[in-house]
Every structure is written in C-alpha cells, then in structure tokens.
From TrEMBL:
Coiled coil: none annotated. One of its GO terms (biological process) is Golgi organization. This is Dymeclin. Keywords: Lipoprotein, Myristate. One of its GO terms (cellular component) is Golgi apparatus. Belongs to the dymeclin family. It holds the Pfam family Dymeclin. It comes from Schizaphis graminum (Green bug aphid).
C-alpha cells in the first residue's frame, strides 16, 4: 500500500535492509531463480498430500488452479523479490547504500551458470526479469561485465537480447528500451565491437524484413537497431530513443 512515510522509517525496510544477511539472501534468491525448480507433482490424497500442497502454495503464493507456464512459480517470485530489493533505496541510507545492490555488484561466483541461464533459450526474446538482471550485472558488476565481454560465444545472450529489441510490437516499450540500454553499454567496449563482427551466424529466420542466410553478429546488430530506429520514426516517435 502507498504511504507518505519515508521507507527508512518502515519496519519492513529495517528488517530487510538492516537485520537480514543481504549477501546470503541475494545469493539464495538468485540460485532459486536459475535453478527453476518446478512445483512438486503430487498424486493421491491424505493428510501428507494436503500439508505438502498447502506448504507449496504458501511458499509460492499460488492457488490450486493449474497455470500453463514454463517458469517455476518459486523462481518467478525469487527474481521479483531480488529485483525489488535491488531497485529499492538506490542511495544511502542504510550504511553504505543498498546492501543487495552491493552484493550483486560484487558477485563473482557461478558466473558461468548465470550466463548460461540468461541465454538458455535462443529461440525466444529475453524475459523482462532476465533483461533487468542482465542490466544490473553489466552496469554494476565489473567481474560479470569482463566475463561477458571475454566470451567467444557471446551470441548466446546477444541473440535473445536482439530478439527482444526486434519484437517491439509484442514487447512493452520499457522492456525494449532496457534491452537497448544493455546493448548500448556493451557497444562502448572496443573488444566487443571487434568480436561481434568476427562471429558468423547461419541464418536468422526470425528476422522477417529480408532473407538472412549468413551474417555476422555485428551486422545483425546493425540490422535490428536500424529497423528499431525506423519503427520509432513511424510509430512510437520517441525523440529520446534517437538521441541515445
């Protein structure tokens, strides 16, 4: 609920920002997100079934109505909580700023697992949660940014990112804008610009404006961003998009 009280005076604020081990909680939430643990499949009845079902519903805030989704409810809630904690209180207090943002900025464990998870579905755009997480890791975490830029298979993450930008009509504008910001940060690095032009892709069937049988990753970036600029001129007409 909305309140005019400053967040630093709220009990829930003090609990999460001052009385909880932010590093452990951040890593646990990130682990739950990347693990994608599915809800338990339970059959039969009885007291144990009821207890297990109720416990799972409490943990995931879900109901007994089946939902067709590829993402684990626990995973979805974990990344939502983590992103809320990271984006809340972006300037001091508490002591030395937001401890969850500090944890993400200093994260150096399991970078390969996180990288592979971000690019685990090259046939689809990045979800909003993945895009936001990728932004925070690239923007705040020098270790992850260096790790990403040093990858020789950077297309694993870049192709879903480009598909997010390409699918402007089906994506929320804020989502597409965040993906463009991530791409802009990456293109500031000279090694990245050299690497993407050396990676040759065999076809990009999702790009429908022309037949692309073989193209460099750098060339695909140019195609997608040019199309986005044209679409913005015709439909969205956002002057800030062209300025950036």
């Amino acid at each position: 609920m909305y309140t005019i009280q400053p967040s630093s005076s709220l009990i829930i604020y003090r609990i999460f920002m001052e009385n909880i081990d932010a590093a452990k909680l951040s890593k646990a939430l990130l682990q739950r997100y990347t693990e994608q643990i599915k809800p338990p499949v339970l059959s039969g009845g009885g007291i144990f079934y009821g207890l297990a079902s109720n416990l799972w519903n409490i943990l995931t805030l879900s109901t007994n109505v089946p939902v067709q989704t590829n993402q684990s409810p626990l995973s979805s809630l974990s990344i939502s909580v983590l992103l809320i904690l990271i984006n809340h209180c972006t300037s001091p207090p508490p002591p030395k700023g937001n401890p969850y943002r500090t944890c993400i900025a200093s994260l150096s464990d399991n970078l390969v697992v996180i990288y592979q998870f971000l690019g685990d579905n090259p046939d689809a755009p990045l979800s909003e949660e993945k895009t936001l997480l990728l932004y925070h890791l690239i923007h705040c975490n020098p270790s992850f940014k260096s790790f990403l830029l040093a990858r020789t298979d950077i297309e694993v993450v870049l192709i879903p990112l480009l598909r997010t930008i390409y699918n402007t009509q089906s994506s929320r504008f804020q989502h597409m804008y965040m993906a463009l910001i991530v791409l802009l940060i990456l293109t500031e690095d000279q090694l990245f610009n050299k690497t993407v032009h050396s990676i040759i892709l065999k076809g990009a069937t999702w790009y429908q404006e022309r037949v692309v049988s073989e193209i460099s990753l750098g060339g695909l970036i140019i195609l997608v961003t040019t199309r986005t600029a044209q679409y913005n001129l015709l439909k969205m007409r956002d002057k800030y998009l062209h300025i950036n």
